[in-house]
Predict the 3D structure of the following.
Amino acid sequence: MRNLLLYTAVFILLVGCNSPSSKPEELPIEQERFEQQLKASNFKQLKLDPAQFKFLNTFYAANDYQRFWVNDSLLLPDGDTLQHLLNNYYYFCTPLNRYKELPSFHDLDLIEQENLITLKLAYLLNDLKEGFIDTVQKQIKPLSPLSPDHLSKFIKEEKIGTWEQNILRHSTPHENFTKTLEGINAFVKTYKLDTIAYKISSAKEDSIQSKQEAKLALYTKGFTDGPEIDDSIYTLALMKFQTMNGLEADGVLGKNTVEALNESNASKYNRTVLALDKWRWKDSLPDKYIWVNIPAYELSLYINDSLKRQHRVVVGTRFNRTPQFTADMKTIVAYPFWHVPYSISSKEILPHLKKDSNYLAKNNYKIFKDGSRVDASQVDWSKIGRNSFPYSVRQDGGSYNSLGLVKLLFPNEHSVYIHDTPSKKFFDKAVRSYSHGCIRCQNPLELAGYILERDTNVYNRDSLDVLIARRTQKTIPLNHPFPVFVDYISVGTDSNDAIVFYLNVYNKDEEWLRLLK
């Protein structure tokens, strides 16, 4: 009986502990302290401004003050991974001094680490989305975090791959953007971001001195283990460097290679920051378009964001620069005449005429005045000056014609167009800036045929071949204009998706690059 009473008392006591009138379960002490400290904006070591505290309070309140990166006693694996990535922000090609004013993780307690990881991640993700240069104010954009709801979505959504891969792919305005960002990510993990601007001696003046200076430059850039290396290792390192800089990998210390070695990796990194921003600046691209990138000497044709064709091109020299612009291709001309620009006829053809009156006939040129043909043999060329050249010059169609066998026209204020060329040898060179400003294209008949076939045009590639075989000049209007973008982005990737730092052939973008230094 006594035992029965004892069991009954214990049962009543247990039931009472779980009755609705009992107190609700209290938050764990660390969770409670986390919420209280955040609401009070009161941390021991972590110093943040009111806007940063407001952002964190908004974010965590919307997530019921859930902690993502720490628990009561330690930094979780995801938090540890993100701390490493956020300490190495250059993995994501942000300006090198972008986050220098933000606190470090050093000596912070777990609650402070949780908040700083969230804040830095929000800044990084927004930077990758919005970019860094304000083109209107011509200044670097101030730090601004990703909105709390977008940050929550990014953190909670199912990840494909690592945190690093997901951050890299957070903003992908174009395939070329993604490839360039992933390419620079691989580069900075392997090579040093040196800041030394070299002045390597000319190999023609002192080959021994220039080689020693090149060895030192390769070492400081991370291509070799030291400056004192034998020539076989030096040559292999130089060839690897040349490939990465869009140059012919011949192991020879030529002018262009010296120019690339003289530029620091930090400078090339800044050019990559700018290249990525340029992709961010673009509005939505059309369903079909041609993109000519001047520093890459390459023409790419896209349909529905898919790369369909690529052609090597020759662009203007540093003195006759191909401009940046956008226009619509409207016509294709088979077997074209070349109406020589006045600047070329007066400055380049006239000196030849003064030396050789048969120069016009030898090169299939004809001259006209007021629309009427002039007999060149009846002109006293010694009396004609470059500033008073009264003639227009036309070169007849044919394989010898400077425009080759086809030209593709997209009316623009610069009178620039794409055309064939008899000078095929230049396409074999890595650096191809040899024209007067127009764009010489390798295999242009294939390009023109591809465009015509997708234009539902009565003419096609076979039609072009027939016209050319008959030596018939024909202007073919397109039914649907084909957009053309002539651009200047000095960093990209190769066919293996490895980063390529093209020569800054026109030394453009200094205004923007100064902001990034």
In short: The longest helix spans residues 110-130. The radius of gyration is 33 Å. DSSP finds 17 helices and 17 strands in the chain.
